[in-house]
């Protein structure tokens, strides 16, 4: 039951994304026009300290008009290594430089509409280097006990699916 993308044309494009229209062949031979969004990869990073606390950001998302806890994240620049982008984003948004990063998981948050892949990384330590360069990204940055994560997600305090998935994986890895 595989759908086949026969061709696609770009309807709109900017530095962040493309909106394309695809001619898709269905298994029964019918065709349909399907809009899709092509996005750059997203790199996400955090650290977990010796007290099993995870570094998070409290921020507002104007698109959904919602507040929630997130991890530092941003797009991977052309030619940039994904792990290096994750480290850069964490430093810029939190003021903490991660130790050696480990790949946690890669998720496709909305694969029925977009080709976005979010690559999540974590470190076992981080060094505070100063006030974050991109302090406008969040209202505050805090070390949150990993043991609280499942309940925070259940209460809707971590609304982004990619962040929730990564945090639950970290909770499992560190606390079982």
From TrEMBL:
Gene3D superfamilies, A to Z: Nucleoside Triphosphate Pyrophosphohydrolase
Requisite cofactors: Mg(2+)
All residue ranges annotated as the Nudix hydrolase domain in the record: 38-171
Family annotation (SUPFAM superfamilies): Nudix
Transmembrane segments: none
Pfam families in UniProt: NUDIX
Alphabetical UniProt keywords: Hydrolase
Family assignment from sequence similarity: Belongs to the Nudix hydrolase family.
Name under which the protein is recorded: NUDIX domain-containing protein
């Amino acid at each position: 039951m595989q759908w086949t993308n026969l061709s696609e044309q770009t309807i709109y494009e900017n530095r962040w994304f493309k909106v394309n229209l695809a001619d898709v062949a269905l298994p029964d031979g019918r065709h349909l026009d399907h809009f899709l969004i092509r996005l750059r990869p997203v790199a996400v990073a955090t650290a977990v300290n010796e007290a099993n606390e995870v570094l998070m950001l409290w921020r507002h998302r104007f698109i959904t008009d919602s507040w929630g806890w997130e991890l530092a994240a941003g797009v991977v620049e052309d030619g940039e290594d994904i792990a290096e982008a994750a480290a850069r984003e964490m430093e810029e948004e939190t003021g903490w430089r991660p130790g050696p990063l480990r790949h946690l998981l890669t998720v496709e948050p909305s694969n029925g509409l977009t080709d976005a892949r979010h690559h999540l990384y974590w470190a076992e330590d981080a060094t505070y280097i100063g006030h974050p360069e991109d302090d406008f990204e969040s209202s505050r940055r805090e070390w949150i006990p990993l043991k609280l994560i499942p309940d925070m997600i259940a209460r809707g305090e971590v609304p982004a699916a990619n962040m929730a998935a990564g945090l639950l994986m970290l909770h499992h890895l560190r606390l079982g």
